């Protein structure tokens, strides 16, 4: 069965999903999430108004937000890209229906992906209409990562349908554990970002050198927050933000410890994946450096965006241990359960 077009579309969707997720992070970091306070348009139109008179009128009508043309454009470009991604995923769902019943074709995955995108669109709407409610924004971020992961799985299954090569490895349960740890840490990072807690602790090992900060974990991780207030800039007290920040830092140590042990084990078991292990280790090291720099320099936009991008790349690199095949078409790490012969 010919699957060239579905595979091409899956690759385009995968690249676009990365762009949409990173653009979403940029939107959040630049405080442009309410650049357009309505949905799906922007101040009642599908293009952000730019003339001075119109912007002045809108500022009077929406005094609770900062009306700025550049913020509106940042938000709308994110929506345009997400819409384009949705169209491609609809096309993938069409092929899923068309090839339903064909052996090895991932029809169900294609339809699940469509459902995920529709749900993600709803959370995108709620992100705006609920004025950046932290739990909604965090779920929206994780939804993007789940869609990215599903696209990687879909592409691997399409390659399998074309070549007959299986998907998965004997070591995948340990890699999947590492991916779960990454997802939990990214959810914490999203919670830090949506509650504007990145600047709450200016010291590295402690929250604030020479100051006893009473962490408020209960308030910091209260999910049932009030719907209605504008959450841009955050609503929590310093003690709650500090608690969020410190839990995120502890999570970073867990991620580094788990993946360091896993990468050493993988590289020793199968020398063919050593380069991939080195890439993953480099991404982890870069993420630690950026995390440290964000603390030292009080989370400037450029460093925060870099931290976000590297997190997405870490997820992609981690999934490649599970899905990718080598040039001979054999599943990578097929003998990870025992040392490779010399």
Short description:
This protein is mostly helical. The chain is built from ten helices and no strands.
Written account of the structure:
- This protein is mainly alpha-helical and 342 residues long.
- It folds into two domains: 1-167; 168-342, no CATH class.
- 65% of the residues lie in helices and 0% in strands.
- Helix 1 (4-29) packs antiparallel against helix 5 and helix 8 packs antiparallel against helix 9.
- The longest helix is centred in the last third of the chain and has 32 residues, at 238-269.
- The chain starts with a helix and ends in a 19-residue tail after the last helix.
- Residues 325-342 have low confidence and may be disordered.
Low-confidence residue ranges:
325-342
Q: What separation lies between the terminal Cα atoms?
A: 39 Å
Name the quaternary structure: single chain
Number of helices: 10
What percent of residues are in strands? under 5%
Q: Categorize the overall geometry.
A: flat
Number of domains: 2
Highlighted features:
single chain, 342 residues, mainly alpha, 2 domains, disordered C terminus
Q: Which secondary structure elements does this structure contain, and how are they paired or packed?
A:
Elements (H helix, E strand, L loop, with lengths): L3 H26 L22 H10 L7 H30 L8 H23 L4 H30 L8 H23 L22 H4 L17 H32 L4 H23 L4 H23 L19
Helix pairs in contact: 1-3, 1-5, 1-10, 3-4, 4-5, 5-6, 5-10, 6-8, 6-10, 8-9, 9-10
């Amino acid at each position: 069965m010919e699957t060239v077009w579905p595979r091409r579309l899956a690759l385009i969707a995968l690249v676009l999903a990365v762009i949409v997720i990173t653009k979403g992070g940029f939107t959040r970091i630049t405080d442009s999430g309410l650049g357009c306070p309505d949905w799906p348009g922007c101040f009642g139109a599908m293009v952000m108004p730019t003339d001075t008179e119109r912007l002045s009128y809108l500022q009077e009508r929406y005094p609770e937000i900062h009306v700025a043309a550049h913020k509106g454009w940042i938000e709308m470009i994110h929506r345009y890209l997400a819409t384009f991604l949705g169209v491609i995923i609809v096309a993938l769902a069409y092929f899923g229906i068309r090839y339903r019943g064909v052996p090895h074709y991932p029809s169900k995955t294609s339809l699940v992906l469509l459902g995920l995108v529709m749900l993600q669109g709803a959370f995108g709407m709620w992100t705006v209409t609920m004025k950046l409610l932290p739990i909604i924004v965090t779920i929206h971020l994780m939804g993007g990562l789940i869609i990215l992961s599903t696209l990687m799985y879909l592409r691997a299954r399409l390659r399998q349908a074309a070549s007959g090569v299986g998907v998965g490895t004997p070591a995948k349960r340990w890699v999947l554990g590492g991916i779960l740890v990454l997802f939990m840490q990214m959810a914490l990072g999203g919670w830090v970002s949506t509650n504007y807690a990145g600047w709450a602790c200016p010291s590295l090992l402690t929250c604030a050198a020479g100051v006893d900060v009473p962490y408020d974990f209960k308030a910091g991780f209260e999910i049932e927050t009030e719907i209605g207030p504008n959450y841009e800039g955050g609503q929590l007290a310093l003690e709650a933000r500090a608690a969020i920040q410190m839990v995120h830092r502890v999570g970073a140590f867990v991620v580094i410890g788990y993946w360091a042990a896993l990468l050493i084990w993988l590289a020793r078991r199968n020398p063919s994946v050593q380069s991939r292990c080195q890439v993953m280790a480099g991404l982890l090291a870069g993420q630690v450096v950026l995390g440290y720099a964000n603390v030292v320099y009080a989370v400037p936009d450029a460093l925060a965006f870099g931290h976000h991008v590297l997190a997405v790349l870490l997820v992609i690199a981690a999934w490649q241990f599970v899905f990718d095949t080598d040039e001979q078409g054999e599943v990578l790490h097929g003998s990870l359960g025992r040392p490779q012969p010399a």
